[in-house]
Amino acid sequence: MNVLATGSFDFSRIPENRDLVSVASTIGYGWEMLAHFLSIDEETVEKIEEDYGYSTETQIVQLLKAWKKKHGARSTFKELLKSMRECDAVNVDWIMLQTKLGFSRGKNSNDNF
How many Å apart are CA 99 and CA 93, to the nearest integer? Predict the structure, then answer.
């Protein structure tokens, strides 16, 4: 599980590709709008849609991989989750995301991302 020995989630960690698959499965309608918040250009989004048009979830995984590649060491869970939260147009199943990644958002959750 993606949890530190202390039991708290490491939001400063760079997601592995398997983490991106887990995150992608919790993102639904509006994923294309998330690209703007991740600083991914429209041309890249169009290429992803063209190349992976058979599966929305695969398109989202590819978007997240493009974000990770573009931002390198700055592509942390904190930055990803912050962008997801800031993008009102994207539908995220936060409860499923918490379950899949093993973190919780308590009353002070904004302190984390």
Answer: 10
DSSP tag of 3: B
Given this structure, which CATH class describes domain 17-100? mainly alpha
Place of tokens 């869970």: 77
- Please state the pTM of the whole predicted model: 0.85
Contact (CB, 8 A) for 2 and 13: yes
Q: How far apart are CA 61 and CA 18, in angstroms?
A: 10
Contact 94, 86 (CB under 8 A): no
pLDDT digits (tens, 9 = 90+) for 67-77: 999 999 999 99
Q: Do the Cβ atoms of 64 and 97 come closer than 8 Å?
A: no
Query: What are the residue boundaries of the structural domains of the chain, listed by start?
Result: 17-100
